[in-house]
Amino acid sequence: MTKPKNEEGLKRVVGITGLSFNIVNCTVGAGIFALPAIVGVELGAFSIYAYVFCGIMMATIMLCYAEIGTRVTKSGGSYAYVVAAFGEFAGFIVNWLAVFGWSILGSAALMNIIADSLAVLFPVFALPWVRALFYFGLLGFLVLTNVRGVKEGVMFVKWITVIKIIPLLCIIFLGFGLINSENLQWEHLPSVSTFGNTTLVLFFAFAGFETALGASGEIRNPKRTIPFGILLGGAVVLIIYLLLQTVTQGILGIEMVAYKDAPLAAVAEKIVGAAGSTILLIAAAISCYGAVSSDVMNTPRVLYAGSKDGLFPKFLGKIHPKFTTPYWAIICFTGLIFIFSVSGGFRELAVLASAAILLIYLMVIFATIKLRKQPTPAEEKSFKVPGGLFIPIIGIGAIVWLLTSLSKWEILSTLIFIAFLCGLYLTMKWVKNKRE
Asked: In this structure, which of 71, 176, 192, 285 has its CB flanked by the most CB atoms within 10 Å?
């Protein structure tokens, strides 16, 4: 069992507040600005219950992360948990799924959304060379901030989370007075297929919280911070989503179809006039940048952990002599985001993301079940999900159901990617054994 004492050369400075802000920032991205219409058009007023249903599904996964996160407290998050339970090979697969299949491609997509949003207001952002310079500046700032220390990275995440949440809170508080109660009444239940397809889309709006645990080796008092931080951050996300859906549905009602691309902008315009759309457009760009900032702070720790275990080049495991951060992992990870942001090549590979995150969740739940069987010393009390296997089984069932809902291209691309990783792993082992 991994002891809470930090032996990695990293400083444990992230507390409950920092972890909670990080989770909110990772989860609440650009999708929320269109999500109310995506759900509302299909389900109408019944959409509120879809959020609750998804919240329950995600809670089962979060609880498993809360349990295993208090047992395995080294850097790496999902990767470290899977390695502790199933060994190097399984960890190698999860590491690549998390770093490349989810984080790098997702962040590259968000960087392009930022530029696309600003191009509406400033057409110059449509020029490729301007976008490249813009990406370099934004990502360069994140590199400098995070290399200087995880404390500085957490502080930036806190501030940008507050900035991105303020417009959403304004919509909630100012919009309640404009709600038409008739728009919140539903006359019949949606079909099972409609509810299922919509839930699949909605589920991914809750995904991303696990990225915050990439810096688990720098979390202070992980036995307490991780469960409290996960549950607090998850609860805040669910409440924000529920309130935004209620306000948007209550104001727009059947008009939601006409504003399906930007429902929150339409609500903001009804609240404060024409300036509302511009404000929400800028808020969407800030929200995207906030999500990328969390990725740059957390995911390099997964590369760092893989390097320390011998799965990646040794230089990725180097710690900065002054700032005690995995600076090469941060630089290389952010550099890959820049390359994919500029090239746009992520669009063809983005189909990996959905299956990648579901497989990671599935492996972590199985890891939680396996490690639960291992005895824990009395002095190392860890959080344990109540109810025996009930919660993990619900989580497994939800993930399997969502996996069956993926398109054949998502499944095929993921299988090809995993086959490539298996070949890469075997090649690396062969080269390593030959050298020895």
From this structure: 71
Task: Using alpha carbons, select from 243, 248, 245 the residue that is nearest to residue 269.
Answer: 248
Question: Is 349 inside any structural domain?
Answer: yes
Task: State the residue for tokens 């995070």.
Answer: 146
Q: What are phi and psi of 12, to 5 degrees?
A: -90, 100
- Contact yes or no for 148/330 (Cβ under 8 A): no
Contact, 255 vs 271, CB < 8 A?
A: no
Instruction: Identify which of 181, 135, 153 has the alpha carbon closest to the alpha carbon of residue 344.
Output: 135
- 268 domain-assigned: yes
The C-alpha angle with vertex 365 and arms to 86 and 161, in degrees rounded to 5, equals 115
CATH of the domain at 203: 1.20.1740.10
**Whole-angstrom Cα distance, residue 188 to residue 415?**
40
* Domain ranges, residue 80: 16-373+385-435
Q: What is the mean pLDDT of residues 253-276?
A: 80
Secondary structure element (H or E) that encloses residue 179, with its range? none
Number of domains in the chain: 1
**Per the domain annotation, does 103 fall within a domain?**
yes
